[in-house]
Each structure stands twice: as C-alpha cells, then as structure tokens.
Amino acid sequence: MNYILQMKKNITREYIYSFLNNFNLLSTVWMLYLAYKGMSLTQIGLLEGLFHVTSFLMEIPTGSVADIFGRKTSRVLGRVFWVISSITMLYGNNFFHFALAMALMALSYNLESGAGQALIYDSLKELNKDNEYMKIAGRIELLTQIGMISGYLLGGYIAKIKYEYVFIYASLLGLITIIHSLTFKEPKIIEKKEKTTFKDVFVNAYNSFILLKDKKDVLYLIFFSEGMLVVGTLFFFYLQNYFLSLGINQFQIGIIMALSGIFSAIMSFFTHKIEKKFGLKNLLIFIPIAYSLLSFGLISNIPYIFNILLGGLNGILYIVYIDYVNKRIPSEKRATILSMCSMVYSLYMIIFFPIFGRIADIYSFNISFISVSIILFILSIINGIILIKK
C-alpha cells in the first residue's frame, strides 16, 4: 500500500517539479545575453549547434542510464549539470567559455529528456492508469507552460536591470529543483533490474534500435514530429532577436512569449478532448498544414499574434505525438527510445539552427522565416498525403 501511495505521489510531485524545472529565467534572455557579450548571430547559431551535437551524441547513453540505473538518478544528475552550466555561463567571457556551458546544459537536458516522461508513464502503469497518460501529460504541460511563462516575465524583467542577475537567480532556483527531484520514488519496473554496469547501457541502446526497426509507424512519427518541434524552437529563439530589432524591449518580449506559452498550455490541457473529437490521424494531418500556413504571418506587421497561435498548435502536437509513442514501446526501453526522439531533434537542430542564423546574418530575419515556412508547407502537404494513403 505504501508503494502504491508513493506512485500516486510521483504524479503530484511531477506537477510541482514541472513548474520548478521550467521556471527558467534564461529562456528568453540567453541569446540576448550572448549578443550582449559580443557573440554574432552566426556564433550564437554555432553555440546552439554545439549544444545539439553534444545532445545528439549523448542522448542514447543518457537514456540508457535512466533505463539501467533509474529515472530518478538520471533526473537528479540532470539538474546538477544544469546548475553548473548556468554558473559557467555567468562567468563566461568568450566563445569557448560559452561552448563549455552549452555542452553542460545539453547533458542536463539529455539526462532529463527520457527519464522524466518514463518515470511518470511507468508510475501510471504501476497504478494501472497508463490509459490516462494523455490527460496527465496535458496537466503537466499546463504547469510546464505556467512555469515557463513565469520565467519569461521574471527573466525579462531582471534582464532589464542586469543580465548577470538572471543567471544568479536561475542557479539558486536550480538548487531548489535538485532537492525536490530527490523526493521521487523509482517504479519497481526499474528497481527489479539487476543491471549495474555501463556495458549494459550500450547493450540496452542497441536493443532499443533493433526494436524500432519493426515499428516503422513510430519511426516515421518521430522523424516528422521532431522536425515540427524543431521549427517551433527555431522560431522561439530567433524571434527574440527579431522582436528586439523591431524596438521591443526584453520585458515586452517576455510578455509576448508568455502569451504564447499560455495559449500552448490551454491547448495542451484540452488535447485529450480534442483528440477524442477529431482523432489522432486527422490531427497529425491538419496541424502541420495549419502550422505552416500560420508561420507566414511571422513576417507580417503583427508577428507576435502569429507566434501566439503557433504556440497553441505546438502544444497539441507534442502531447498527441508523445502519447502515441509511449503506447507503442515497452517500459524497459522507454527512457532510451524517448531519448532517441530527442536525438532526432538534436540532429535537426545541428543542421538547421546555424543555417537559419547565417541566413539572418547575411540577408534578413524575414528571408529566414519565409524560407522555413515554404519548406514546412511543402513537407506538411507530403505528410498529409502519406497519412491519407496509410
């Protein structure tokens, strides 16, 4: 009975953790901070690329760490690396300092990416409530967005005073999150395993690759959906500098991103109802098309309105996509395969983030946005044709 109670508490603790972990003061200011420190858009693109090179190389090993040594262990280590990264960024003064900070931050995300979702999904499985994951994930995403919104507003406000203060407060908040992450209970599905060597980490990763070879629907959804999410990330980060070039200050940028987060949170919260009404296949066909069409509005006179609408569509897509993948994979490989999703995301970011920054440096933000929108529209039509035929 005590174990069942702990599994229930994992869900409640996850709500708190999601808020704390995403109350990220750095989200809307780190690119502005790097520019303030003398980095060009090309250098910022390279730093983000380095982040994703590190993430790409380490996603599978860190996912296997969560499967072998425990989701809780992986999560705690992730928060420790995040604090170290923030401190490194605070005291950094050149490209190489920032490169180290970005690599450490990538490791922190790697250690969290598969572990957190796997811990909650397996806690629900232990309670025989895994069919409620989409609803729970919607609530988690709501609290995630509330945390992010709070971070956008407070981070933007503090940055107007002094950029360095943002990193100091972010590090202190990271320490609080580490303490909270120690309160989770590992599901028995992980505890019953006796594997304790790093060799098992790579064996588990290899077996996960073999498993996905026979699940082509999951593979396709991973590659397409992660591409969509990457586009959302490109827009999110580069819009900060774009808005600044339009004369919008840091605090106002925080408000715009907060409104986008609010709409995303609302749509995420109701995703399980939206999915029941329209169906998985229809959502996967029409959301990308709608997203690509709305993205053309980023070069209009009201780009912030379209940014807010795009945030809502991203919220729906993410919940539907992750729920489907979780239903199609076994628990003992869950964290590793979810980390593979992040690895695909990182691969896309390695390729496209520096290219986007370079185009913006040479030509303009408008050219970068319109190029991505055209490519996205073509791919979303192809995706629709594929899914209709299947």
TrEMBL record:
Highest rank taxon of the organism: Bacteria
Statement: the UniProt record of this protein carries the keyword Phosphoprotein: no
Domain Major facilitator superfamily (MFS) profile: from-to ranges: 1-390
Keywords for the protein's UniProt record, in alphabetical order: Membrane, Transmembrane, Transmembrane helix
Keyword Glycoprotein found: no
Residue spans crossing the bilayer: 15-36, 76-92, 165-184, 218-239, 251-270, 282-299, 305-325, 337-356, 362-388
One Pfam family matching this protein: MFS_1
PANTHER family reported in the protein's UniProt record: PERMEASE, MAJOR FACILITATOR SUPERFAMILY-RELATED, TRANSPORT PROTEIN-RELATED
Designated name of the protein: MFS transporter
Organism: Marinitoga aeolica
